[in-house]
Amino acid sequence: MPGVGSGRLLEELLLSQERAHRIGAIHRLDYERAVVLTHDRWKFEAGGIPQFCYLLATARNTQGPGGDDDEVLLLRVEGTAALSMEADLFAVREESLRDALSAVDDPSPGVVLDVSLDPFTRNRISFTGLNCRILGTFYEDSADGHPQLAWGHDVDNFYATATYQVYKPLGEGLSQIASYLKPDPGHPVDKVRIGAVRYASTRRRERAAKQPPAPVHVNVYDFIGHKTGMFGMTRMGKSNTMKTLVARTFAASEQQRRQGRPPVGQLILDPQGEYANPNTQDGTEIAAIGQEHVVIYKFGADRREPHVRPLGFNFYDDRQLDAVQGVIAEALADSTADYIRAFTAAEYAAPLRREDETEGEYYQRSDEAARGRLILYAALKKAGFPVPRHSAREARYPWRAAVKMARKLADALEAANSTVHLDRGSRGWVGVPAEALETVVDWLLEQIDADPGAIEGLAAFAKSNAWKAAVPIYTQTHGKRSVSGYTKLQRLKGFHQPSSLEDYRRHVYEALLKGKIVIVDLHLGPEGVTRRLSEDCAEYLLEQQTAVFTDGRDAPHIQVVLEEAHNLFTAQRYKDDLDVWVRLAKQASKLNLGMVYATQEVTGVAHQVLANTKNWVVAHLNNRPEVKALSQYYDFEAFADAIVTSEDRGYVRLKTMSSPYIVPVQIDRYGPGLVNEARRAAGMPPLELIPTPSRGGRDGG
Question: Does 374 have pLDDT greater than 80?
């Protein structure tokens, strides 16, 4: 029965004197909106009533045992409302001013408008109305015999308006509302702080009232395995929020590890280098979490720091050549020359056997690819790419370029070049040492030009498509004209790592399986090449996760952090089912890939991606079309004007998967304190905190 032994949880969590301040009563009420009657003095004592402020309306008797109802309506202030007698009050004030104008000798505004009103009149005109939206209803429920705070998105009954008291939640009461999570028995919960409630850009009155900040906690598992969108202009705090989520996710991952469950890896594709390098405003960096837990891949790394590794491939390793060819193709993609198109279309990597080809056809393609690799390796050596000292397959042996060559052709080559000594293998395979690459290729080209049928086996080189496509790259001649050839490859030298024994993407994936944070720094190097590297990395991740999934096992949880999402998930691009980013967006959930993407342009992201985004972090956007697109989701339309006008860093409107409503939050600033929390979760000693000036939660992202 209402009021008999129930509703105590509502009193304790929301309505106690320490958690709520009475500011008025309900004036009008329906199922969606309410008008709250309040007074200037009550608003002052409550520390002000800013727009978007939460209010609580209840028919309970909060001053005694129980009451008429065991429910609390959650309201959100969205503007002002006219009261039923407001026109009369305006008339009273106008009459008072007319009387003052007639009673004084000086009719100036400073005298007439500032005239003292009698207390009765002043009180009457101090009543105002607040136009509020009803977000839903808090009530008490039971789970496994224990009371819990439950939530409904609507109103199932209402009483006479005079019955309701209205409160402004404060401190722990406000935190309880802002951090409320919908009960979901099948969804794990780990509540972590992400910031504090912030209603408005102006915060003077809130601070003057010395009201305690209301922390906002979110369930970190809302983000793991799900899509999270971060929307806002540059320098509005997106990267700071990203770093905060990365640190919180790492802590949750370490907790899983301690419980014997697989950890969560995190891959950050960093186009601007803002995650891979220290930020002076943060006073720290992600890598401060610990070198054994954070791996950074970057262009030109020299391994002086154990956690910083080179971003690139061994261009002379046939096992990595598939990825290498993609990088080369991207670097040459802007050229319209026929020989460039032929070169990028040729097959140099060891091919996979097709279903529709015979064994003989497959071996023929393999042999042709090997002949193409020989001249490609020679072109790379000419371009200044250092040749590895040892074989990538077996470190005990020196590097050799393996190629199929008829015995008579090999004999003639060695007879004509006394410095060339080929390593003879079985079935016609020979190994060409690094120092002989150019000599061998020059001799073969000379013999082909003279008579491709003069020596047995020479015609096989002359007819090889891969060989012919690489000739202009090596010789810098195409037909009768000179071309740039191998010089076009020189800008890729920084991506060549002679000591790399394997594709770096495999090491990235293995680190992710161990629960590490992997940052791929893409801010150096040609844009087309770094773009290709990021696509290759995402492609490899999808391949590995898909292989686990199709094998009938649960794919490991991995979080992927993406910047500039408006370039990755456009509506036009989303039509291409083969595009790696489209595949990532479509398949991420079933493959346990969480995706955190950031963008300045809501309209630049395909609506299919937005519709499947579970968590929304919205900072300042500077134009109406973007906000209009945003307003189609949840009730962001209510915040449209504030999103356009408020330019405070880190001030966001947050909607998470477990939260039933949007919460205005000032995101905590990523700094040494958060780093040490992550280190403690991993069982590491804290770093010495370096004091940094407070910027009210602002960040440099």
Answer: yes
**3-state SS, residue 365:** helix
For residue 96, the tally of other CB atoms under 10 A from its CB is 17
Write the CB contacts of 320 (distance below 8 Å, at least 6 apart in sequence).
313, 314, 392, 500, 502, 503
Q: What is the mean pLDDT of residues 416-440?
A: 91
Structural tokens at position 700: 């440099």
HSE, CB side, 13 Å, CA atoms: give it for residue 651.
19
Residue 471 CA: distances (Å) to CA of 282, 343, 465, 517: 52, 9, 10, 43
The predicted pLDDT at position 693 comes to 44
pLDDT for 2: 44
For tokens 């369930």, the residue is 219
| Average pLDDT of the chain, as a whole number | 85
pLDDT band at 697 (very low <50, low <70, confident <90, very high): very low
602-636 in b/e burial notation, b at 16+ Cβ within 10 A? bbbbbeebbeebbbbbbbbbeeeebbebbbebeeb
Number of C-beta neighbours around residue 598 at 10 A: 22
Among the residues of 429-475, which ranges form H helices?
Answer: 437-450, 458-463, 465-475
**Neighbouring-strand partners of residue 134:** 75
Q: pLDDT band for position 376 (50/70/90)?
A: very high
Picking from 340, 449, 343, 466, the residue whose alpha carbon sits closest to that of residue 403 is: 466
Question: What are φ and ψ of residue 260, in 5° steps?
Answer: 85, 10
Q: Residue 629 — φ and ψ, nearest 5°?
A: -65, -40
258-263: which pairs have CB atoms within 8 A and are 24 or more residues apart? Answer: 262/513, 262/515, 262/556, 262/557, 263/514, 263/515
Q: 299 or 138: which carries more pLDDT confidence?
A: 138
Tell me the pLDDT tens digit for each residue of 73-85. 999 999 988 887 7
Predicted pLDDT of residue 45: 87
Share of the chain above pLDDT 70, in %: 87
pLDDT digits (tens, 9 = 90+) for 441-464: 999 999 999 998 889 999 999 999
Spatial contact of 232 and 255, defined as CB atoms under 8 Å apart: no
Euclidean distance between CA atoms 286 and 574, whole angstroms: 32
CB 121 within 8 A of CB 132: no
Cα separation, 290 vs 281, in Å, equals: 20
**By the 8 A CB rule, do 252 and 261 touch?**
no
* Positive or negative torsion for Cα 567, 568, 573, 574: negative
